[in-house]
Amino acid sequence: MKIILRLLVFVRNRWGWLALAFGCLVASTGFAMIIPRMLGDGVDTALRVGESGFMWWPVARETAIWLVAGTIIVSSTLRGVSEYGQQYLSEVVSQKVSYDIRNAIYDRLQRLSFAYYDQAQTGQLMSRATVDVEAIRMFFGMGLLGIVQALIMVVGISIILLLMDWRLALMTMAFLPFIGWIAYKFSSHIRPMWLRIQEQLAVLGTRLQESLTGIRIVKSFSREKEEGQKFATQATVLYNEQMGIARQMAHNMPFMMLIMGLPTILIFWYGGREVIAGTMTIGNLLQFILYVGMMVMPVRRMGMMVNLLSRTVSAGQRILEILDTESAVREKPDAIELGRLKGEVIFEEVNFSYN
């Protein structure tokens, strides 16, 4: 997390945009949580005979159904508007952050001494300024608020379920610690794999840059086939690393979905008995099922967020290596001004001698 905290420095001038995006996220999440409640009340209203009610207001059954339908439509509309604002504003923040990071990398590279470039490879620098910066941009555009939204939804839905039926809620949420442990293990396992992929992308870029730079020599000595084999070998290594991550994700995400599907069995078993006993309505049971289904979404996205976070940490580590590099040649604070004055003196002397 130390790397993520250091990357947050680039957001210091964008807190206003990020706060607006967070407000839209909270609004969209709140409107989304209203819909299952309205659907459950609508079912109970339709099955009830005689007078009914909407929320706490005693109204006729037909009126209550129309109010429920209207609330669902309004909530869905406002949810869509809020999600649009959240995605737009978070993308603005991510683009501005990536812009600042690219400028910071370029400024640092301009100020490093020639000794640094004797060891640094062009492909490595290009990969860090493009691929790694793009990984960080995706985190600030999707991952940061995505993680916050997942936490808000899990906490909010857990509170709602506890208020509805604490026994059934505890049985449902008993699977969450196990899912969190799986996500942690997956993150710790996949982070070094992403680091190897990003390093291999840089190696591949370096191989391509060297081959194209020396293309005249390669063609002069008829080394096209050998150079092609070298590039293909590096590409194969990159392919195998990426397929390794794909296999990990293919195993992890369905397994997490399977675990989150198990509480549905408990809901039907225990909730069905409560409905038969008359201590729970069919609408409340429907609300339970819908809220648990909503909880599956952030848990499902959590696998992608963990993957994105791991990639961001490895990318941030490579970028901070450049930003933390100190030049072997230290300039005095007034070196630029002294150089300018000396240049003007030399120019005047040359101009005087010429005249």
Q: What Rg is obtained from the alpha carbons, in whole angstroms?
A: 29 Å
How many domains, in number, for the residues?
1
Helix/strand/pairing category:
mainly alpha
* Low-pLDDT ranges: none
Number of β-strand runs: 2
CATH superfamily placement:
ABC transporter type 1, transmembrane domain
Determine the fraction of residues in helical runs and give it as a percent range. over 70%
CATH class: Mainly Alpha
* Widest β-sheet, arrangement of strands: 1-2
Could you explain how this protein is built, in words?
It contains eleven helices and two strands; from the N terminus they run ααββααααααααα. It has helices at 2-7, 15-47, 61-111, 114-119, 122-164, 166-173, 176-213, 215-220, 224-277, 282-323, 335-354, and strands spanning 52-54, 57-59. Helix 3 (61-111) runs antiparallel to helix 5. A hairpin with a 2-residue loop joins strand 1 and strand 2. Helices cover 86% and strands 2% of the residues. It has a single domain, classed as ABC transporter transmembrane region fold. With 355 residues, the protein is an all-alpha fold. 24% of the residues are buried. The longest helix is centred in the C-terminal third of the chain and has 54 residues, at 224-277. The model has no long low-confidence stretch (mean pLDDT 79). It is elongated. The protein has a two-stranded antiparallel sheet.
